Amino acid sequence: MSAVRNPWLAAFGVVALVHLTLNAAGAQPWDSISKCLLAPLLAAWAVQQHAPRLLVAALALCFLGDLFLELDDLFIVGMAAFAGAHIAFITLFVQRGALTRLRARPAIVIVYVVIAIGMVAWCWGGLEPDLKPAIPVYAALLVGTACVSLAAGTRAGLGGALFLVSDGIIALSEAGRIDPDATATGLAIMALYIAAVFLLATGIVSHEHPADPSGLPRKASRRT
């Protein structure tokens, strides 16, 4: 189904636009509330489309990450939830043969690893001590998702790349390399994140359920 015809994707699009508007206006707590609706709407659509359970789990963990990041002193807990989401994404793509495809395209892995190392090095001096052990691990998971998502095609691969960029901006803002209070910073983070989860989810479903001649996704028999 197209985004226009599917109520869950249509609702996701509306909430995304509302959230970006509220984010730009600094309208709390509505900004936080709208943010926390994004992943559940995609998860509901994924369930409707008989998507792999790992995709639904990843989106549920994204919701928890969004929620915890909005609460005081729970940044690490939010990171842990998103780390779980990336583990779910990576597991799903690896099950679909991502590693075999990556062996034929090692340059992709090298490029992403170099980018991640550069970003961590840029952040390092400005990070709080309690974040320093977590950032390299989380960066590795981001790189993992970015690399293996290409196994599901260009759309999912672009989603993985945008996730890396979005969370990279968060790391740079936490390290004081970018102004965390600037409106442009918040908008960039959320616009990239929204695009990332949308492209990952729709890319996975399109890969699992190739469209038939009518343009509607077929239901796959396998769910993991």
TrEMBL record:
Coiled coil (residue ranges): none
InterPro entries (alphabetical): TMEM86B-like
Chief place of localization: membrane
Compartments (UniProt record): Membrane
Bilayer-crossing regions: 74-94, 106-127, 139-165, 186-206
Transmembrane listed as a keyword: yes
Keywords, comma-separated and alphabetical: Membrane, Transmembrane, Transmembrane helix
Family indicated by similarity: Belongs to the TMEM86 family.
Name this polypeptide is given: Lysoplasmalogenase
Protein source organism: Aeromicrobium fastidiosum
Lineage: Bacteria, Bacillati, Actinomycetota, Actinomycetes, Propionibacteriales
